[in-house]
Design goal:
About 15% of the residues lie in helices and about 55% in strands. It has one helix and three strands; from the N terminus they run βαββ. The longest helix has 12 residues, at about 20-30.
């Protein structure tokens, strides 16, 4: 097994449905432009309230991905 180098970025996903859906939206959308995503960490969970009800869930994630070797 060769050594690898990773980069970490922070992204925010949102969903009207829930936290799990917000995480999946963030990862699946990011995977369209970031290759080799290996892991994620939930850093913060927030939400948006409208008329006393939860309108959106927002999840801040740290995402790690492997840098390609030449």
């Amino acid at each position: 097994m060769s050594d690898h180098v990773y980069k970490m970025v922070e992204i925010v996903g949102s969903s009207k449905e829930g936290i799990d859906d917000a995480i999946r939206n963030a990862i699946e959308t990011s995977a369209k432009s970031i290759r080799h995503i290996s892991w994620f960490e939930v850093v913060k969970t927030t939400g948006h309230v409208v008329d006393g009800k939860v309108a959106h869930f927002q999840v801040t994630l740290k995402v790690g991905f492997r840098i390609e070797d030449e």
